[in-house]
UniProtKB/TrEMBL annotation:
InterPro entries: G_AIG1, GIMA/IAN/Toc, P-loop_NTPase. PROSITE patterns: G_AIG1 (PS51720). Residues 1-143 form the AIG1-type G domain. Keywords: GTP-binding, Nucleotide-binding. The lineage of its organism: Eukaryota, Metazoa, Chordata, Craniata, Vertebrata. GO terms for molecular function: GTP binding. Belongs to the TRAFAC class TrmE-Era-EngA-EngB-Septin-like GTPase superfamily. AIG1/Toc34/Toc159-like paraseptin GTPase family. IAN subfamily. PANTHER family: GTPASE IMAP FAMILY MEMBER 7, GTPASE, IMAP FAMILY MEMBER-RELATED. It holds the Pfam family AIG1. This is AIG1-type G domain-containing protein.
Length: 143
């Protein structure tokens, strides 16, 4: 089984990402002034012929969240290759809160786990630009 652990700040779309991966609503996700996810939750589904477990976590800066997330990550780091940490960031200007959340996540995972981590950007639909036009692909022949 492949385990995907969603990490990041509050209101960046971790729960929505988990629901999208699992192709069903497992995690509560709604606009709110307060954190919606307050505990660690897990959902499992067969995706493309493989069992996938998605672990949703509270915002890493929320009070008490680090005490929940740290042992979870330590447990998953003991598993050889069956875990990917998805560090979720909202596509937006990098606020001090988002910067702190990213810094705390990197400190939590350490260098070894960064090899098993991916940055996942959410809210891309809110961008008012066509990314293909804004950042054309560079041909290797030109480099």
């Amino acid at each position: 089984m492949l385990s995907l652990v969603l990490l990041g700040g509050s209101a960046v779309g971790k729960s929505s990402v988990g629901n999208t991966i699992l192709r069903r609503r497992v995690f509560a996700s709604r606009p709110s002034l307060r954190p919606v996810t307050t505990r660690i939750e897990e959902g499992t589904e067969e995706v493309c012929g493989r069992q996938v477990s998605v672990v949703d976590t509270p915002g890493i800066l929320n009070p008490g969240a680090l005490d929940l997330i740290q042992p979870l990550c330590a447990q998953y780091l003991l598993q050889p290759d069956s875990v990917v940490f998805l560090v979720v960031l909202k596509v937006d200007r990098m606020s001090s809160e988002q910067s702190q959340a990213l810094q705390r996540t990197m400190e939590l995972l350490g260098n070894g786990a960064m090899e098993r981590s991916l940055l996942l950007f959410t809210y891309g639909a809110s961008l008012q630009v066509n990314l293909t036009d804004a950042h054309p692909r560079v041909s290797l022949e030109k480099v």
